[in-house]
Write a structure and sequence with these properties.
It is a single chain. By secondary structure, the protein is mainly alpha-helical.
């Protein structure tokens, strides 16, 4: 009975956390005059991936690297397969040329790099993970710096950003 209560409490906290995180992301996008898509690609995507990261780190530290790897691969399959499928069922997706020129090749290169790291020795070393994290940050900096102008977003005059302390509080609570 206690397990059911914890599951129910976890779902409530998950919904509240997602709402707080979204409010903080919108507030930061308005305050910093950054398109919401850029904030979504950075703050929201990292915060929503945090549970998988925590599970993977705990599994690896407890001596279950297979569970950590399976969690990462399964999460990506679920995100790409389920989320993309639901979005496509609800409506079409407009794929811009930029996807084929930049996004898809970078995703394929990252996948091939990951495959290469595992293929030759069957072990993902700390320095290899560091290389992948470094490439992630380089790509994010590139997107933030050069792709900002590529995103056209409607300006909403009726939206006022949250006060800074509330945005930081919501970001912290939502991410946690």
């Amino acid at each position: 009975m206690l397990d059911v209560l914890f599951i129910f409490l976890g779902l409530i906290l998950l919904i509240l956390g997602g709402n707080w995180l979204l409010k903080a992301a919108v507030a930061f996008s308005l305050r910093l005059k950054i398109p919401r898509i850029i904030i979504g690609m950075t703050i929201v995507s990292f915060a929503t991936s945090a549970p998988e990261l925590i599970v993977s780190i705990n599994a690896a530290l407890d001596g279950f690297p297979d569970l950590a790897l399976g969690n990462v691969v399964g999460s990506n399959i679920a995100n790409l397969g389920l989320v993309l499928a639901i979005v496509i069922l609800l409506g079409s997706i407009d794929v811009r040329k930029n996807f084929y020129v930049l996004d898809w090749p970078v995703m394929m290169a990252a996948s091939l790099l990951f495959f290469g790291f595992l293929y030759f020795d069957g072990i993902l070393e700390a320095y290899e993970g560091g290389i992948m994290v470094l490439f992630l940050f380089i790509f994010l900096i590139f997107l933030l710096r050069f792709q900002k102008s590529a995103v056209v977003e409607e300006e909403r005059l009726d939206e006022k950003p949250l006060q800074l302390y509330k945005a930081v509080l919501f970001l912290g609570l939502g991410g946690a």
